[in-house]
Amino acid sequence: MSHLKLIVGLANPGEKYTTTRHNAGSWYIHMLAKRFNQTLREEKKFFGYTALLKLGTHNTRLLIPTTFMNNSGKSVASMSIFYNIPTEDILIAHDELNLQIGIAKFKQHGSHGGHNGLKDIIDNLSHDTSFHRLRIGIGHPGNRNKVVTFVLSTPPEKEKKILEDTIDRAVSCTEIWLKESRLKAVNQMNASI
Q: For the chain, does the N or the C end have fewer beta carbons within 10 angstroms?
């Protein structure tokens, strides 16, 4: 059985991006660290903030890259190489334009789907796409010319609350994955849609 050894939340660094839709992956990692009473600390050799979850005999590392989104692969690759983590034991959490807000889904394999963070990770993992993804729906502005402004803006309070509730559900499902099984976690996540 595959065990998650690295969970990554994609983000852009800096205070001005903290509350943006594009940083939904880092919101998830912060909530996950809080759930397990862990503190994220900056580790320059991994170009990110990290924490360690110890669950029985398993160690799962958390990572929020401090690189910009389109350079996330450098951070993910440095940690996976250092700890010899197979690509299929990595989960990448990211914002997803193609899912409505309020929906989050686990997925394994696939293309980057136009997400620059995923594209860079795939490039840095020797084009291996066997990692898992947590796709956090942020919705779409309805016009592709508005996408950049949309993802780099802070959602209104009502939308932010929906996003936070969705991420909280994802954290609960991740805990099921870590303590029980991936299949149970995926089924639980899909049942909550």
A: N
Active site (catalytic) residues: 22
26: nearest Cα among 50, 55, 56:
50
- Residue 68 among known ligand-binding residues: yes
**17-58 residue pLDDT tens:** 999 999 999 999 999 999 999 999 999 999 999 999 988 778
**Has 116 been labeled as part of a binding site?**
yes
The response to whether 70 counts as a known ligand-binding position is yes
Is 33 part of a structural domain of the chain?
yes
| pTM of the entire predicted model | 0.93
CATH number, domain containing residue 156: 3.40.50.1470
Give, for 158, the enclosing helix (H) or strand (E): helix 157-179
Q: Quickly count: other Cβ atoms within 10 Å of residue 179's Cβ.
A: 12
Buried b (16+ CB within 10 A) or exposed e, 163-177: beebbebbbebbbbb
What are the helix and strand counts (H, E) for the chain?
A: 6, 7
Region of 136 (left: φ > 0; alpha: ψ -120 to 50; beta: rest) is beta
Domain count, the chain: 1
Q: For residue 32, what are the domain limits? A: 6-191
Name the residue type at position 132.
Answer: H
| Amino acid of residue 18 | T
